[in-house]
Amino acid sequence: MAELLARAEISPSTITDLLERYLKDNILRPATLRTYRKVIACLIKDCGKGADTLPLGEITFDLLTEWRRMVLERASPATWNNYRTHLRALLNYAILWGWIETNPLIYVKSAPTAQRRKRTVPEKNLRTILALLNDDYGDDGGTDTGSLYPRWFWRIVLRTFYYSGMRLRQLVSLRWRDIDFARNEILLTAEGSKTRREWTIPLSTLLRDDLRLLMNRTMRTSGITAQAALLDRQVFNVTLFYKRYKGAEMTEAHVHGFFRRLSGATGIAISAHRMRHTVATELMRGRNPDVKAVQQLLGHTDIRTTLSYVETDTEQLRHIVGNLTAL
Question: Where is the Tyr recombinase domain (predicted)?
Answer without folding.
Answer: 116-322
